[in-house]
Design goal:
By secondary structure, the chain is an all-alpha fold. The chain is about 80% helix and about 0% strand. Helix 7 (about 190-205) packs antiparallel against helix 8 (about 205-235).
Length: about 260
């Protein structure tokens, strides 16, 4: 019967029969992408901060320098490994390989969130490192000059500026994760792409199902882009700022000027 329909009729028929399945798959995709992006950003910030910890050969003892160097080497290996291999290979390795080689059995959902999170963390680590480096070194020097420790300066001066600099990259990672979660179908996660494969395999409507899925993916990515753009605008604040005379200095100056006359 479906073979006798035209293209538009087949799409309507598929939506009538499997519309709920597509929506559930889209919800799964969005949930994995959002949660994993948040966790990945936390991982990326931690790794990026550690990578930018300065080493003073005069003040720091050999044990501290050696330990910090080892930690940085491990983190660099992590970043290069997960940036240099496809996520689909990482999914297969973690979900199937961990149980076979290390006898660690991870659940399907645990594996999904873990895979996308650590992959995002690797990319965010470099973004954070670059964001911290992009802040004028004079900012750190000024913070230390007024008595701040390195940790205080990072938390109150450097990281807020770095965060604003890497906001676009956070948005890019979310959009990428919405699309790249499709590779998790290899470990049987019932996301949007998994639903597409199931429907197209059952009805032999590959082009029609792919069209529906593309529209849903595009809708999610455009909505994410718009929300992130609004967030960036909110972080930027108002275009014009009104100076507030908190200390009443203006009134004091005007009074002094009047007294001089």
């Amino acid at each position: 019967m479906i073979s006798e329909m035209n293209f538009l009729e087949r799409i309507i028929y598929i939506l009538q029969q499997y519309g709920v399945s597509y929506l559930k798959g889209a919800g799964t995709t969005l949930a994995i992408a959002v949660v994993s992006t948040i966790v990945g950003c936390i991982i990326g910030f931690l790794v990026g901060i550690v990578q930018t910890i300065p080493v003073d050969k005069k003040k720091d003892n050999a044990a501290k320098r050696g330990l910090l160097g080892l930690v940085k080497l491990i983190l660099k290996a992590y970043v290069e490994l997960f940036r240099g291999t496809p996520m689909i290979v990482q999914a297969v390795f973690i979900y199937y390989g961990m149980s076979q080689v290390f006898h660690i059995q991870l659940g399907m959902w645990t594996s999904a969130f873990l895979i996308v999170s650590i992959n995002t963390g690797a990319y965010m680590a470099e973004s954070v490192r670059g964001g911290i480096i992009s802040v004028d070194p004079g900012q750190m020097e000024g913070a230390k000059a007024i008595g701040m420790t390195h940790v205080q300066a990072m938390a109150n001066v450097i990281l807020p500026q770095a965060f604003r600099n890497i906001m676009p990259q956070i948005g890019n990672n979310l959009i990428i994760n919405i699309k790249d979660t499709s590779v998790l179908s290899v470990i049987s996660i019932v996301d949007l792409f998994f639903v597409h494969k199931s429907v197209s395999g059952a009805l032999y409507t590959y082009f029609e199902s792919a069209t529906i899925v593309m529209v849903i993916y595009l809708t999610m990515t455009l909505a994410a882009s718009k929300l992130l753009a609004l967030w960036e605008k909110k972080l930027d604040g108002d275009d014009n700022y009104e100076l507030v005379d908190v200390m009443g200095i203006g009134d004091q100056l005007r009074k002094a000027k009047g007294d001089m006359k």
